[in-house]
Amino acid sequence: MPDLRSLPAWAIRVSDGGNFLQFSATVWNAGDSPLVVDGFRREGEDTMDAYQYFFDAAGNQTGYQQVGEMHWDGRPTHQHWHFEDFARYSLLDASQVEAVRSRKEAFCLANTDAVDLTVPNAAWNPDNTDLSTSCGDMGSLSIREVLASGWGDTYAQFRAGQSFDLHGLPNGTYYVAVIANPENRLVESSTDNNVSLRQVIIGGTENARTVTVPRVGLVVEPIFFGR
To answer: Residue 75 — very low, low, confident or very high, per pLDDT cuts 50/70/90?
Structure first.
């Protein structure tokens, strides 16, 4: 079975306009089976019905289950088919109650980053590492999206919707919550490890917000362009 897990948000910054908290996030598969989701387009619609497929230890398909929908996203930083309900991003207040939800609600599954290739059945050389080959185009009638064992799917902060709107939000301590499989539609071995929290401290004023991000453990994040 696949086992989706979320890593703490990273590359956190305030947008140039000073009102949006941008971040990058990775959800990865720690299970001993790939997450395989096929989409089949409805006639005359920009919607696909999505099905998860299951396999035995020898790699033979043993079954499938409908798990939601895929939709075409035509925005400039996407322009591919997205699976609904793969992950959710929420900004929680100091009491860990949702204050803002990101508009990013759908995802193209692809093996963008190796996270832990020591997990059982990890794929050392997966096929779909490029969004342009795994997520289809406007004319696609069906697609297969795969997240291999040991690999993560990363969305960087430049993607449309990958942010929180800070308008009217009081300064203070918050948590960026990355939630895998938020509606439990995908079948996986455990849902106890689907949520990660990253503390952030919001300051500044309207149109000039600031963010301070305490370090996680021993990890020192690289700084780009002074950020």
So the answer is: low
